[in-house]
Design brief:
The chain is α/β, with parallel strands linked by helices and 275 residues long. The chain contains ten helices and 13 strands. Strand 1, helix 1 and strand 2 form a beta-alpha-beta unit. The strands form four sheets. It has a four-stranded parallel beta sheet, with helices on both faces. Helix content is 39%, strand content 27%. 50% of the residues are buried.
Length: 275
């Protein structure tokens, strides 16, 4: 049996986590100097309420011990090898903790640095999980994850541009100009790929961007939101009607990502389905 592990910043929804039996290492979110484990100690709704009330927020990578605990759980469940897929080292120190933990794991661990973040990491886990379910070896599934990391697309609207700017993840000039910037994450930076006059036209712009990037190739898609289920639902409905979409899942944007984007964020990550 091959175990599959990621970290909570991947925003992996329960259906994908259950389908591929993924172990998730929680990221630490610090609100007003009080630490919380994402997905364990605080809900997204509680987090955004505190954030909206003016709480200071930061995130911290897990300790090697926290990662090792998940590896030990996977081994106890019968895993003889582990594929560990994580947020990129270009945006987080998580890979460092993972690498240290892998050296003490009771079973061999293959580590994948996706060089990306948020649900883009979940896309890599999703694709690797599908490969493993089809009988792939660890090394082959790791190659699938790395390929998807390079091939995936994303598009979104940020609810709090000041948070993105403060965190250094908003590219220079991305917020300039009239209207609402429609963004995509590339090389650890949020780049503007369009502008919209309002949220309804942002849904149109994001749909057009998806169609352009997909190029007619079948895609698996995740649509996420931070307290904007109606907008995300409208966007998901638009994408579900597209012939390029073979499967679509919904996810909630949790604290480790919401700390850099704020409430009101919604968008999609997507990747091509292998023939």
């Amino acid at each position: 049996m091959i175990g599959l592990v990621t970290d909570s910043s991947a925003q992996l929804p329960a259906d994908l986590r259950g389908r591929h039996h993924v172990g998730v290492v929680p990221i630490t979110v610090v609100l007003d100097d009080e630490p919380f484990l994402e997905g364990v100690d605080i809900t997204p709704a509680e987090f955004y309420e505190r954030l909206g009330a003016g709480a200071t927020v930061s995130t911290a990578a897990p300790s090697p011990g926290a990662v090792l605990a998940i590896y030990e759980q996977q081994a106890a469940a019968g895993a003889t090898q582990i594929l560990s897929i994580h947020v990129g080292s270009n945006t987080s120190a998580t890979i460092g903790a993972v690498t240290v933990a892998a050296g003490s794991s009771p079973v061999p661990v293959e580590v994948v640095d996706t060089a990306t973040a948020s649900f883009a990491v979940a896309c890599c886990v999703w694709a690797a999980g599908e490969a493993l379910a089809a009988g792939a070896r660890v090394a082959d599934a790791a190659d699938v994850a790395r390929r998807v990391a390079h091939e995936l697309g994303n598009v979104f609207v940020v609810g709090a541009l000041d948070l993105a700017r403060r965190g250094g993840r908003l590219a220079a000039g991305a917020a300039e100009g009239e209207g609402l910037p429609v963004l995509a994450l590339a090389d650890g930076q949020m780049q503007a790929v369009g502008r919209a006059h309002d949220l309804e036209s942002a849904v149109d712009a994001m749909t057009d961007y998806f169609v352009q990037v997909a190029g007619g190739v079948p895609q698996r898609v995740g649509v996420g939101d931070a307290l904007t289920p109606e907008l995300a639902g409208a966007y998901a409905a638009r994408l579900s009607d597209r012939p390029e979409v073979t499967e679509l899942v919904r996810y909630e944007i949790g604290p480790s990502v919401g700390a850099h984007t704020g409430a009101g964020t919604f968008g999609a990550c997507f990747f091509p389905v292998s023939p």
